[in-house]
Amino acid sequence: MTANHVHLVAVHVPVVLMPLALVLLGLGAWGARSASSAGAGSAASTLSATGRWLIVVSAVVGGVAYFSGPPAFESLETELEAVRDLVELHAVLGRAAFSGLVLLAVLTIQAILRTVQEEPPLRWLDGIVIVGVALLSYLLIWTGHLGGAIRRPEIANALAWLFPAL
């Protein structure tokens, strides 16, 4: 398996899991607030727990994607010379996304540890994580769009109003 293959497989995982984590965390937070119906608290905590674990998995797989990027580029460097600026922007956004994944995973592990120790979740921490996941989902999708535009130039300007190539 080449670095290109590893990179292409790994980059899709956080791009898909982070928006899914956002949905699960949002449903969990909403369910926790309206836990007046029987069993809603349990279902809400399960949704939140699943969303938290998706963030941690995204950070781990995001590390694989981040560190496989440079070798993938090196193997195609001459072929990608024409889109070097796009590759560099993709790399900068990838670094920012990976840094965000790590930071968010650390915050999320704090929430997981509170749950394991049977302590109530901190609402402000959950709020920060939800906002972070929303922002990071956009950044990951934008980074992925630019990554796709590297090999598929016809999509580079398809959504320029949403994902600028700067």
Which labels suit this protein?
single chain, mainly alpha, 78% helix
How is the topology of this model organized?
Blueprint: H1 3-33, H2 40-75, H3 84-116, H4 123-151
Helix pairs in contact: 1-2, 1-4, 2-3, 3-4
Structure description:
- With 166 residues, the chain is mostly helical.
- It is 78% helix and 0% strand.
- It is built from 4 helices and no strands.
- The chain has helices spanning 3-33, 40-75, 84-116, 123-151.
- α1 (3-33) packs antiparallel against α2 and α2 packs antiparallel against α3.
- The longest helix is centred in the middle third of the chain and has 36 residues, at 40-75.
- It is elongated, with a radius of gyration of 18 Å.
- The two termini are 33 Å apart.
- The model has no long low-confidence stretch (mean pLDDT 87).
Strand proportion: under 5%
Number of domains: 1
Shape annotation = elongated
Number of helices: 4
Give the proportion of residues in helices: over 70%
Indicate the radius of gyration in whole angstroms. Answer: 18 Å
Structural class: mainly alpha
List segments where confidence is low: pLDDT < 50 over at least 5 consecutive residues. Answer: none
Q: What's the number of extended β-strand segments?
A: 0
Distance between the termini: 33 Å
- In round numbers, the mean pLDDT is 87
Q: Could you give the order of the helices and strands? A: HHHH
**Main beta-sheet strand count, sense and barrel state:** none
